Amino acid sequence: MARPRARHAPGDSSALAASTRDARVKAASQARRARRRQQLRESIMTAAQELLGEGGAEAVTMRAIAERIGYSATTIYLHFEDRDALLFALLDEAFAEFRAVLGTAAEEAEGAAAGIRAMGRAYVRFALEHPAQYRLMFVQRPDYLLAHGPEETGARIESLGALAALAGESPAGRAGRSDGTLAADVLWAAVHGIAALATGVAMFDRARAERATDEALELLIKGLWTAE
Amino acid sequence: MARPRARHAPGDSSALAASTRDARVKAASQARRARRRQQLRESIMTAAQELLGEGGAEAVTMRAIAERIGYSATTIYLHFEDRDALLFALLDEAFAEFRAVLGTAAEEAEGAAAGIRAMGRAYVRFALEHPAQYRLMFVQRPDYLLAHGPEETGARIESLGALAALAGESPAGRAGRSDGTLAADVLWAAVHGIAALATGVAMFDRARAERATDEALELLIKGLWTAE
DNA sequence: GTGTTTTACTGAACGGTGTTAACCGCCGCC
DNA sequence: GGCGGCGGTTAACACCGTTCAGTAAAACAC
């Protein structure tokens, strides 16, 4: 013990070995720090997700998160610039799942009409199963859809772009009577309206929302696929 | 001056005159007080309406109202139980105008389909012209739709009941294929979706909202008025 | 091993919110 | 003329997001 690390002259092989070992120890230490840092960030995120699911966006307070993860509230600011940045991180995760859900729904369907139907149903189902997330995404913070520049905006509403593409394949779309974006707006508004009501108005329960979804999709698809 | 009011024995005619005059003075004083009270309540309401229109519901702050009307914030509590009660009062006014707008739209139209079209357009127009009110009514505080017992609830969404009645007159409704409430849900969700997006997402501007409204109404009405 | 710097984290505080409680002056009544 | 109640205010509490000075420990340098 207490073996003092000797100073070595440059070029000395043992010095080289020692310096590489030092570098490796240093790298390992940094990696350890980075991992711990990442873990804390993730524990913040999971606590925030829990609070969001339990009590909505209002329940996601810095102090509540801190209390849940056993840290001081100010610690969160070492990982997120402010509460908005944290909510945005939550929203990014929610949008990722949203995109995945709609994507698989669109893939499994055959044809544009079936695709629209599948995506519409998946849209409302997502809202029903993640009401707090949906409200944060499209009701409480719709500004986030357009935040942080158009490149990221595209990724967020890419699912809606897919919807527009499908709508463009409809006879109405091909005839130029109703271009894809207009039809997509209508479809989006329809499912969003149902989702917003279902997640906000107590009397609009799940069964009612699903019936309305099916009916709305049938009516709109029929209209888009019917010549004037 | 300084004429002492003499005490009168009961039955004395001058006493009777004096007492009635006293009563009238008292009543006038009470009325004055009541009027002043009512005026203050109304000034609170107008200040709150202004703040709502200027900065949304978040801007409707007790202290901001107080500063605007030249009173202390706690004075508001002499006229409203709490902030929720004040917002509810704002909402009541908004719902009254909403009901009027939709009512006249429905009256002026002839036939169920035209009525639905007119109400739908009026619905979105109301949202576009009173975005803060609309968001408070249907987006931020949808719980108010069902608050305070079913009797008041009915008055609030009576317009939607009229919509359901019109929808029930459609061929689809008469055939029992799609009862009125289901069709009304679909119609309501469609216009609400457009209104919510138009008042929340910046890129969803007025022209886009109106085009989507017309298209959605045409498609849905066509679907409801077309046999299977 | 020792001194220094960097990092992680905290407690206290500020300004804002809704809301409550104690106080105070004035008007109308007796 | 005294006095009660009403209208109104000030001070305070609890909570919110956020900032800042400070501290303990870890990493680093020699």
Describe the structure.
The structure is a homodimer of 228-residue chains. Helix content of chain A is 73%, strand content 0%. With 228 residues, chain A is mainly alpha-helical. In chain A, helix 7 crosses helix 9. Chain A is elongated. Chain A starts with 12 loop residues before the first helix and ends with a helix. Chain A binds chain B through residues 138-139, 142-143, 145-146, 178, 182-183, 185-186, 188-194, 196-197, 200-204, 208, 211-212, 215-216, 218-220, 222-224, 226, and chain B through 138-139, 142-143, 145-146, 178, 182-183, 185-186, 188-194, 196-197, 200-204, 208, 211-212, 215-216, 218-220, 222-224, 226. The structure holds a DNA duplex (30 and 30 nucleotides).
Concise structural overview:
Two copies of one chain form a homodimer. By secondary structure, the first copy, chain A, is mostly helical. Chain A has ten helices and no strands.
Topology of helices and strands:
2 copies of one chain form a homodimer.
Chain A: H1 13-55, H2 62-69, H3 83-108, H4 112-129, H5 131-140, H6 150-156, H7 158-168, H8 171-174, H9 180-200, H10 206-224
The structure holds a DNA duplex (30 and 30 nucleotides).
Mean pLDDT score of chain A, rounded?
86
Q: Tell how many strands the DSSP assignment of chain A holds.
A: 0
Instruction: State the helix count of chain A.
Output: 10
pLDDT below 50 for ≥5 consecutive residues: which ranges of chain A? 1-12
The sequence of SSEs of chain A as H and E is: HHHHHHHHHH
N-C termini distance of chain A: 91 Å
Oligomer: homodimer
Biggest interface, chains and residue tallies = A-B, 37 and 37 residues
- Globally, the shape of chain A reads elongated
Helix share of residues of chain A? over 70%
What percent of residues of chain A are in strands?
under 5%
Structural class of chain A: mainly alpha
Major sheet of chain A: none
| Radius of gyration of chain A, CA atoms, in whole angstroms | 26 Å
